[in-house]
Structure formats: structure tokens, C-alpha cells
Specification:
disordered N terminus, alpha+beta, five-stranded antiparallel sheet
Length: about 290
């Protein structure tokens, strides 16, 4: 079985690439992951993130876009009798919640072509349902999730799926226009390094753009958390979307140019290369 290394760069200043750097996007595109049918659930989802905020994204059979939101510092302090002492003191890393985005009328039918593609070089997920396009990305430079929609024939409906309601659950603030805000606050009686921690997010929905702003605080009251969230939203909303998208893609381009390994050969070799590239992507998303 013949195996050849296409190029190896960045591991040493003495390495010389066999292929020009301009070929790197093409090499990465060959490792993109595309699904040609939706969902149906969280176990069939694509990951994306910016090192602090993470999503797992899927499309359900009815065409709804759904994703869970994770954050590296969203440590909850709820305790249950069956939990051991480590879990009670160390906390549990919680999802902030699930977000559902529905298009009316739904562009997805049994005859509609469907494609969900993880675009590695751009750091985004692109979903095409017939004439509808959804672009999902977690800004590499700012704490915001972006969903861009291109479907002039449909309206968007955004909803929050929150399963921590009731006593010691999450607080969902009264809706204001097209905004949704919610947070979770750990009890003051929790372990000292978890007590009072507040984490949640705010959703700002428009006709073609949905922005989600997660925030965690460790030294604030709910009122202060809301104030900081408003400041975070106002600061990022002042930036042109095209500018932030270009800067996001530039970050990912720099990341991929730090070092790379592509091995060419049979299908087993190709699978090894894909696995290496995808693991690098996961590492960037997670930390």
C-alpha cells in the first residue's frame, strides 16, 4: 500500500511545503462533512464553537433548525441524593438551553433537496433546504452565535426550549419585542466556588439574522447580570455583520495555516487524514 505525504508545515521552521499555501483551502474543502438528509435528533448533530461557546446543530424532519448551547463556565450547583460528593462540590456543566428556529412555510418537503455542510475553512455550518439557506457560526472573536437566513418567502420563528423551570430552575424574563432572555442562578447555599454563579443568554431576532449572546457571571446579582448582558449586546450590535464575519473567517484561516498534515493514498489513508483534520477542528471549537 503506497502512502505519500502531500505537505507538512509548521512543525519546524526548517520544513518546506510540497504544495503552495494557496492549496490549503482546497485540501480542507475535501474534508468537509455533508449530510443529504435531515436529523432526526441531537445524536445526529454537527458541532461548532469558538472555544468557549459550543453548539450541536441538527435539522428535524419538518425542517426546523435546532441546537443545544453549551458554555465552558456554565457550572450548575444543583444536587440530587444519588450524586456523589464530587458532583455536589464540583458541579455539573449544564447546557444553557435549546433553541428552535422554524421557517413558515417550511421549505423542506419530501421532494426538496437537502444539504447540511460543515465548512471547515470558514468555521461555519451551511444548511440548504430547497431555496432556503441558513448559515450558522459562533463568532471566533466575540461571544455571539449567528444564524443568517436567506429565504425571502418565509418568516422565522425562534423559540427557547427550557427544561429547568420551577423551583431552583431557570428564569425566563418577559419577552420584549423579538428578544428572549433567560438565566440560571446557583443557590447561595451551594459550594462556595459555585454559589451565586449566573449563566444564560439573550436572543435578538430579526428578519434575516438571529443573534444569541451567552453570558456567565460569578460576582453579580440578576440585575447586574442583565445590565452586563445589555452592554455586551449593544457593544457587538454596533459592529457591522460583514466585518465580524470576515474577521471570523480570517481567524479560522490563520488557525488552519498554523500547521497541517495531509496524507494521500487509499481510502484508509484518506479516512485517517479526515479524522486528523476533524479532530483539530473539534479541539479549536472546544478550547
Amino acid at each position: 500500500m503506497k502512502r505519500t505525504i502531500a505537505f507538512l508545515l509548521g512543525l519546524s521552521s526548517f520544513c518546506t511545503p510540497v504544495l503552495a499555501q494557496t492549496d490549503l483551502p482546497t485540501q480542507l474543502d475535501s474534508c468537509n462533512v455533508t449530510w443529504n438528509e435531515p436529523g432526526p435528533g441531537a445524536t445526529e448533530s454537527m458541532p461548532i464553537g469558538n472555544g468557549d461557546i459550543g453548539l450541536n446543530v441538527w435539522v428535524e424532519k419538518n425542517g426546523d433548525l435546532v441546537f443545544y448551547i453549551a458554555k465552558t463556565d456554565a457550572w450548575g450547583a444543583e444536587t440530587r441524593p444519588e450524586w456523589d460528593q464530587w458532583m455536589k462540590t464540583g458541579g455539573v456543566l449544564m447546557k444553557l438551553g435549546a433553541v428552535r428556529i422554524a421557517q413558515t412555510p417550511s421549505p423542506l418537503t419530501t421532494e426538496t433537496p437537502f444539504a447540511q455542510t460543515l465548512r471547515l475553512h470558514q468555521g461555519e455550518i451551511l444548511i440548504k433546504e430547497g431555496s432556503s439557506t441558513l448559515r450558522i457560526w459562533v463568532d471566533a472573536n466575540h461571544p455571539v452565535i449567528r444564524i443568517e437566513a436567506d429565504n425571502p418567502n418565509a418568516t422565522l420563528k425562534v423559540s427557547l426550549d427550557n427544561w429547568r423551570l420551577g423551583q431552583d430552575g431557570d428564569t425566563v424574563l418577559p419577552a420584549q419585542g423579538n428578544n428572549i432572555t433567560w438565566y440560571h442562578q446557583n443557590a447561595a447555599t451551594a459550594d462556595p466556588h459555585l454559589a451565586g454563579r449566573i449563566f444564560g443568554a439573550g436572543i435578538v431576532a430579526g428578519k434575516k439574522l438571529i443573534s444569541i449572546y451567552p453570558l456567565t457571571t460569578t460576582d453579580a446579582t440578576p440585575a447586574t447580570w442583565r445590565t452586563r448582558l445589555k452592554q455586551q449586546i449593544a457593544s457587538i450590535e454596533r459592529l457591522p455583520l460583514e466585518q465580524t464575519r470576515a474577521a471570523h473567517r480570517a481567524w479560522w484561516d490563520r488557525f488552519w495555516h498554523r500547521s497541517w498534515i495531509f496524507v494521500h493514498g487509499d481510502e484508509q489513508v484518506r479516512a485517517t487524514t479526515n479524522g486528523y483534520v476533524l479532530q483539530r477542528y473539534i479541539t479549536a471549537c472546544a478550547g
